[in-house]
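Teaching note: in complex prediction, the entire set of molecules is handled at once rather than each chain in isolation. The prompt given to students was simply: 'Predict the structure of this complex.' The entities are:
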Amino acid sequence: MYRAVRKWINIRTVSLLAFAVVILVPLLTVVSASLKTMRQYVREPLKLPVPPAFGNYTDLFAHYGLHRYFGNSLVLVVCTVALVVLFSSMTAYAIVRLGGWRGALLFGLFAAGMMIPAQVNIIPLYGLVVKLESWFAAASWLPDVKIRDTLPGLILIEAAILLSLSVFIITGFMKTIPRELFEAAAMDGSSEWWMYAKVAVPLSLPSIASAAVFLCVIVWNDLLYPLLFTGEKAKTLTMALMLFRGEYESNYPVLFAGVMVVSLPMVLAYVFFQRWFVSGITAGSLKG
Amino acid sequence: MKPSKGIYLFVLPAFVLYGVFVLYPVAYGLFISFTNWDGLSASYEFVGARNYRNLLTNDAVFAKSVVNNLKFMLFVVVLQTALSLVFALFLVRNTKGNIALRTLYFLPTILASVSVAFIWTAMYDTNFGVIKAILGLFGVANGPGWLADPDIAIYSVAFAQVWAHTGQLMIIFIAGLQAIPRELFEVAEIEGATKLQTFRAVTWPLIAPAAAIVIAYTTLQSFKAFELVFAMTRGGPNYATEIIATFIYRLAFQGYKFGYASAASMIFMVFVAAVTWIQFKLLRTGRAAG
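The expected output is the structure of the full assembly:
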């Protein structure tokens, strides 16, 4: 008996369980505390919420209209990812078809974008957006286009920033399609559009799906660009959460309910599409 | 058979977006860095290299943010690489239990940085935080002021980063480990090598490329940790957790010093490139020697 216990309690088991506890305690605290009142949480932070109180959640939706920000985030993610995947798969196709130095140059140009830290980009980007808006406002023959605090504006900016990453992932995969396939199709008189839509995209679907999932996570979770470019109208869920901090200070149960609302869609997606999550996030981080 | 000129139409939409919102701003940022533009008014003056000179010789907060960033980076790179490698070695086989643990470890990776920041702000709270409650169970009444004590605040934030991303890097190591042919381990076993010898002679040389990727990626992550720091401490108390990214943001969007902040961002870009390059060199010589 003693030896059996000794065998079971080795360094491996102990460290794995210890880390599992380190991961789990904060996560369980979020779930549990989001179902408590502030009073219950302060008195007994470790106790389970029995019976659970859903007041924090109803407050966030009924009082703060969190569903609007939820909708904004959803539209932002769907449109941005669709745009990026379409444009970057087209670019990847052109890079692969061109080949040679032209292909390499285009690939290098897009890949270089991944090396630019966001903090280098945000100041001139903001300046540019302000200037563009004032040009649109000044020229009478142009419509009065707003970029700040509009969803289309934020979608274009997020899409532009994420193109590099997506071109990188999809090109890497599309390169492995045998060239002969395209050459044979071209010989038969197929147009480039046909080959893109009927050959290149279907064969690259695994990488496109990985890229799409990875992009979804990035855009849904992004704070920086919403922080810079949204006000009340186009506010995203992460931005709303950030601002709750100012209102609720350390009313953690309400903040945690907010954390739950922001996290649940991604956690559910992770549970159902785990394979794509892991392959996407690995591919995305391998770019260095 | 060469594609027709029409192929460039495929690149056009991406190129326009990328050119306008990414490539052009980098050049424009370099231009702004030589001015005293405030980001709002139409006029500005050229100030030559004054912004750069002030940043490098006469700005204690900037110097502090660079040092903090290096502390943050070292803490995260060392702890995160070590933990993710050890857990990858432990969980490399695809058993049910291992897969379940991998799934759990990976989970925080998909949380938003704001969420991670709020979760750990609550954990660290010295009035009614969970860590305080747990320490209380062990009879510790007064724990450290995790985020309030300027000496340890940066490491408290760095730990939140490690918590969130160890699982992600573990997955990269596992992919590297699973690519090693099993025969090599069998040979080592037949030869009577100890576990440590096997690791040094077989495992490590073959996962060194994965380690290089993990370290480079973690380094970049450390410089990009803007959202975590901003949502957790906003650089405080008294700039104790100010990193370069929060410094730039604060100057530009709260202090309206666009020119000065742009110069800082240019230095930042060179700094990141230099650190990445040094690391690359070190890892290469390390591999050649080992």
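Point out the following to students. The CA atoms of residues 178 and 257 of chain B lie 50 Å apart. The two ends of chain B are 47 Å apart (CA to CA).
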